[in-house]
Structure formats: C-alpha cells, structure tokens
C-alpha cells in the first residue's frame, strides 16, 4: 500500500472477525459470557491499531463498553473494528459487535466499545504513531469529533480521580 504524507485511511486498517458461539463461550445463563466478548473486542482492537500504526500496541483504556443484547449458542457473531482517532502516541478504535441472522444475513447490534491503543517500543514505552488518519467521509469526521470529546471526558475523569 502506498500512503501520501504519512496518512492512512479508516478502511486501510478496518478489521472484521466472525465467530460462532460454542459451549465454552457460554455463561451460566446460557448466553455469551461478557468476559469472552471483552477478550475478542480487545484482540480485534489491537489488531486494528497494529494494522494502522505498523507498531506494537497495548490497550490503555476501554470506554463506553455497552452490552445492548445477548447472544446464544451457535449464533454467528461478527466484530467490526475501525480507527476513529489518531493522537501522538495513541489511537482510538471503535468495535461494533453484531449477531448475524443465519437465513437473511442481517446483522443486529449487540455491543459497542471504544478502546484506546498506545504504540509502544520493546521496553513498553510509548512511541509516536507513524501514520495520521485521513478522514474521507462525513461519518468518519463525526466519529473523529466524538473521539475528541471522549478524550476530553477521560482527562476530566482522570483529574477527578476516576
């Protein structure tokens, strides 16, 4: 891939994973275990950030993890991750999780999360993100502005001791 001015697009690193829920993914209520879904969300966010930055990354924060609906055994779960913001050493990744209807192929949202991924060197120290983010659509620009608000909210919560 060739990039102008050190920019990459949202599409360049967009990642989609498909999983079929198995018995080991189920909790005591017969639904997808939230911790398992959180693991998958963390993994896909890391892959997306790695693809964008070309650098090792680590998860620094999870923001707005919203469980909207459950999923059960043999459901097809689809996770879609995209970069929403790039800062100096960090990136925000949005992960949407869906259950896909086996007959129609329609997807129903069951979860949304925003994660902050930080580029790190071999010693685990933050390093600059090599590529900026080229925003091509109004939706991408709106998501970027939302990310900036979430960043400010995180700073405020941190200053308040949260």
What would you note in describing this structure?
This protein is of the alpha+beta class and 162 residues long. The protein has helices spanning 10-13, 34-53, 138-159; strands spanning 7-9, 15-20, 57-67, 76-86, 90-100, 107-119, 132-134. Strands 2-4-5-6-3 form a five-stranded antiparallel β-sheet. The protein has a two-stranded parallel sheet with strand order 1-7. The N and C termini lie far apart (41 Å).
Blueprint (SSEs and pairs):
Elements: E1 7-9, H1 10-13, E2 15-20, H2 34-53, E3 57-67, E4 76-86, E5 90-100, E6 107-119, E7 132-134, H3 138-159
Parallel strand pairs: 1-7
Antiparallel strand pairs: 2-4, 3-6, 4-5, 5-6
Task: Summarize the model shown.
By secondary structure, this protein is of the alpha+beta class. The chain is built from three helices and seven strands; from the N terminus they run βαβαβββββα.
Physical arrangement of strands within the biggest beta sheet: 2-4-5-6-3
The main β sheet shows up as: 5 strands, antiparallel
Radius of gyration: 17 Å
Number of helices: 3
Order of helices and strands: EHEHEEEEEH
Strand content: 35-45%
Spans of at least 5 consecutive residues whose pLDDT stays below 50 are none
Instruction: Report the helical percentage.
Output: 25-40%
Count the E strands.
7
List its traits.
162 residues; alpha+beta; two-stranded parallel sheet; 5-stranded antiparallel beta sheet; 7 strands; globular; 3 helices
